[in-house]
Design a protein that fits this description.
Elements: E1 3-5, E2 11-13, E3 22-25, H1 28-32, H2 40-45, E4 48-52, E5 59-62, E6 70-72
Antiparallel strand pairs: 1-2, 3-4, 4-5, 5-6
Length: 79
């Protein structure tokens, strides 16, 4: 069962497919190269994986298929 441990100690379960905590992202420029394509699998493989922690809202992005994620933290309200 795939899972990811966030810094807030929340275990993000990734075994549910589709996962409500995993997002797929790509640049607008890259997306434009698929303008006349309908092959969802090819588009999916061209994206980067991003996880969103349901507890603390941290984002974890696996850029270019990286094994280690880059962490992004939402600034506190009013910052």
């Amino acid at each position: 069962m795939p899972k990811f441990l966030c810094k807030c100690d929340e275990v993000i379960n990734l075994s549910v497919i589709p996962s409500p905590n995993e997002w797929r992202i790509m640049s607008d420029t890259k997306l434009d190269t698929f303008s006349d394509q309908v092959d969802v699998e090819e588009i999916y493989l061209a994206t980067d994986s991003m996880l969103r922690c349901p507890k603390c809202d941290r984002l974890w992005v696996f850029w270019d298929g990286a094994e280690v994620a880059t962490e992004y933290v939402r600034p506190p309200s009013g910052s």
